[in-house]
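Subgroup meeting minutes
Present: P.N., E.W., G.H.
Scribe: E.W.

1. P.N. recapped why we're keeping a running log of single-chain structure predictions: easier to compare across weeks, and new members can see raw inputs and outputs side by side.
2. G.H. added today's entry (792 aa).
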Amino acid sequence: MSNILDRAARMLADNRKLRRWCVAAAAFAVVLVATVSALLVGRANALAGQDALNDAMTDDTRLYWESAGAGESGWTAVDENVPVAEDSALRMCLAFKLSSDQLDDQGAISYRLPEGLTLPDTTEGETIAVFDGVDAAMADETGDTQIGSATIKGNVLTLTLDSAALGSADGGDSSSSAVESGDTAATGSQATEVSGFVDLDFTFDNLVLNNNGSVALRLGNARVLHVTKASAEEDVASLGGTSGESESLPDAAASSESADVNDASKEGATAHKVAAAKAAPVALLASSESGSEPAGKDFGPYIKTATVEKVDKGKWTAATEVTEGDSVQVSLVYALPDGLLDGTTEAGRTIYYKLPNGVTVDTESQGRVTNKDNVEVGSYTIGTDGTIKIVFDQDKVMAGHGTVDGTVTFMGTVSQLSSGESGTISFGNASTTIKVNKRTEAETHDLSISKTAAFVDSTHKKIKYTVTASSNSGTGAVVNIKDTLSARNASASFDKNSLVVKKIDASNEVTTVDNANPKYENNALSIESLPALGKGEKYVVSYEVSVDPTSGTSNGGVSNKAEGTSGNQASSDTKSLSWGTETSKSGWYDRDNNCIHWEIVVNPNGGDITEQRVHDTLPDGTRLTGPFEIKGEDGILLPAGGEKGAGSIDYTFPSTDASGKPLSNEQKTQKYKITYSTTAPSKNGNVENTATTYDKSGAPSRGTGTAYVDHRTLEVRKEHGADTSEGKDRKATWNSTVTLSDTKLESFTYTDTINNATDGKGNDLGADSHCAWAGELDKYGSSVVSVGEIPA
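Output recorded in log:
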């Protein structure tokens, strides 16, 4: 609301019973002169959940990586066959196309992040940007349009889309509020479709890796994203980074739960907490019993409880039974007796604990220990030999100040059993015993399918594909591969002479498979009964597809799904390529200005845009509110056109920009957006508009957008606030909100009748029992609004 309406709402606040200075009149009128102002009201839509977002994900959903400090332009798509340097940044782009009726009343939808990925909760006031889907295929967010925000809590991602992104199919506030002037009517909304994406940035520390440093993030509907962390021995120079030493924890990574050790006498207890904030999953190693005892006091006998957690359905869950190879998170709670620590020597203020057989740590962690007030009180290390060591600062340790309670949390991996079908892990003096089961041979088998696709040249008449079937632990059975083609506005066929099948063993030795015996039927390629893959081995199938576009069409595409099976293992991957000057259009209603904003996107597939023609006849009851704008992905502006009141757009793309400078080849083949605004029809409802792009041969490509027009109506609400007492008088607070309609008003009258107060039995207490102060009304309203005559 404008300042005028804010003040009008406050005019009726603070009605007060005051017999000495009350206004004689029981009613008053205030006449406000104001222009129309806007009030955007949230959408009300159906709640959508996990399955809805799974189904809504598009092929632009993928993983990216970049070298540390590379900047927003440095993102590269992850190739599951190429390890990524340990210190690289990772980004998961979740791209989607949703219908508004899949969202809840606030335009939100929730999604549990996949098993194997754990992200911290967003803090209060912190959000993650959700962008429109125009550039979802590019990891660089620069210049993208934000259409909403996202939060994370308990590893659940909640997306909330702006009403504008949903075509402004805004039905207003559907609640009915009983006020003195009447009830509020609800207005329905029409379902709209929106494309978008959200980028989740993280590191390998947030992933639960298997013993080969890999993870498969399953997003539902057979969509699996793979990434592998490079080991220290692997050559990652080609990735633009190096695999140096593991990062140590930041200074603030360790956290204490109470004040300084010196402050224990005040609280009766002192606590500190060593937490691996960058909780890195670790590779499977043998448990070590070698090495000399470190200096200090073993706090194993003082461990009170031990909690082991493993990932279950995407969340860390307490467990009393684990399987060898599982990544686990261990929390040890201990209580050091008074007098155990001695601040006179370093050994006297050092405590340590050696992990038992069964849990291993691969990467050393170190950092500072802080108390609950974030005051540093010591240092810690968690070593690869399984030793946890905490050294308190000398000035923080004093005897005779009570028990020191603390918690140590770290990540580890359950070791392989040397023999038998099961074993146990026990931690210090804790009574908890964890059962360890041996991993069966079937559980170790795995199969992963991935593929790549690229046009051979700019004619779009030939596509080169590779299908990779890989296994981290071996398949245990023969491997079957099937690849199926489908095409739009074209025919596609396998080039049988281009097929090559190669096997790459764990040492990267390549062997050509000459007896693959491929079969071609029903537009599918099948290769069956390839010998089982061993650990770290893979098959790479390469071939080409010939494409023949349908005559008279300017756009088309080829989609390709690769599937692999081995025993009870199955995996698949799909790739799609398209061409032409495909056109899309979207629109949304602006209640602030009573107009519709439209956007036409042309040339998303990189054709030559020059001499392409765009025609758009505006719907009945709408006209341009001004010129339209044409902007390329790189921000370049082309000569625009259109004028206020025009009923159509007809534009041919030139070979020069708005300044007359010739377009470069890159500018001729980039994507362009045409944006403009139109008036809105007087009635509520959907407004549909189709734009058509014609290529140089005259072949059309059409895109249709829909905006829901929902005009604002006059609405008055009144709410009772808090009551306060001053002596014998009681002050009641009232808040009124006025929403003006879209109809132009010269003035309007707001009347609030102050009724007499009544006692508990309903008896009228008289004309002076309930009144407003004339002085307060004048203070709130006279400087901005015209106030009618009020008795003194």
